[in-house]
Design brief:
The chain is mostly beta strands. The chain contains 3 helices and 24 strands. The strands form 6 sheets. It has a 7-stranded antiparallel beta sheet with strand order 1-20-19-22-17-14-13, with no helix packed on it. The protein has a 7-stranded antiparallel beta sheet with strand order 2-3-4-11-6-9-12. Strand 13 and strand 14 form a beta hairpin. The radius of gyration is 18 Å and the shape is globular.
Length: about 280
């Protein structure tokens, strides 16, 4: 069995744009042992009043990794310079492979903006191995109806009790969203030598309290979650990349030279350009 090695309390929050009140639960500088996962943001829960102008974060670049947005409440509309766009709602997951690079923006949907309401979710950054850093960008929109649910466990990626998650990944990854009733427990199969961590979104477990990140040992396989109260748990596990990580802001590569090149490419417009209509609006 894997064991709990370290527990980290969620830090103070900050805003990303004007629509995402965020607490950064995990990052590769503080938690390098959780490769291939390099960042986990918990946004909300927060209540927004009705408004006319959508709140969010405007055009910004990414290169070298993937973002996984797990939405629990609210709606997000996204658009990028590769021509992709869409909307996700409660229970949906957006899996964006930035790869070689793009610009994108994320805002509350226009419908959610007009009616207001509760906004809540997670965004995970997954590192790409060196050989795939410059892969072409792509999106996977994983609808709630297409994500298997087994005994309260949503299988976003990987496998649980014979059910496979719909996400396509570059390296072996397991992502589970688990909802437990008080006094319930669940046996979570995890691979020997894989990185693994769990984040308690809500409630209390025997091993952690709400908004705590638990880093599990790489040795051992499997883990048992025991809920003391109703709980929502996000479990992530994957094969460590074992490669150097160089990151700065929206770019995560393997060397400082590659980071410098990413900034040069961004400034030269090689990651895409903001539509002219938006530059002048």
């Amino acid at each position: 069995m894997k064991t709990a090695q370290r527990i980290y309390r969620e830090p103070e929050g900050h805003w990303v744009g004007d629509g995402f009140p965020v607490r950064t639960v995990l990052d590769y500088q503080r938690h390098p042992e959780v490769s291939p996962f390099i960042l986990l943001d918990h946004f909300g829960p927060a209540d927004f009043l009705p408004a006319e102008k959508p709140r969010g974060v405007g055009w910004h670049p990414h290169r070298g990794f993937e973002t996984v947005t797990v939405l629990m409440e609210g709606e997000v509309e996204h658009e990028d310079t590769a021509g992709n766009g869409g909307r996700i709602g409660p229970g949906d997951v957006q899996w964006m492979t930035a790869g070689a690079g793009l610009l994108h923006k994320e805002f509350h949907s226009r419908a959610f903006t007009r009616r207001g309401g509760r906004f809540h979710g997670l965004q995970l950054w997954v590192n790409l191995p060196a050989r795939h850093k410059m892969t072409p960008p792509r999106y996977q929109t994983l609808r709630a109806a297409d994500i298997p649910v087994v005994d309260g466990v949503r299988v976003i990626a990987g496998e649980f009790q014979g059910r496979k998650g719909p996400a396509q990944t570059f390296t072996p990854i397991t992502l589970l969203e688990i909802r437990l009733r008080a006094k319930e427990s669940v046996h979570v199969p995890l691979a020997e030598a894989d990185s693994a961590a769990l984040y308690l979104v809500q409630g209390k477990l025997s091993v952690a309290s709400e908004r705590e990140l638990v880093i599990l040992s790489r040795s051992g396989a499997d883990f048992v979650l025991e809920a003391e109260t109703d709980a929502i748990v996000f479990v992530m596990s994957g094969t460590p990349l074992g490669e150097p990580v160089a990151g700065y802001g929206p770019f995560v590569m393997n060397t400082p030279r590659e980071i410098q090149q990413a900034f040069a490419d961004y400034q030269a417009g090689r990651l895409g350009t903001i539509p002219t209509t938006e530059k002048t609006s």
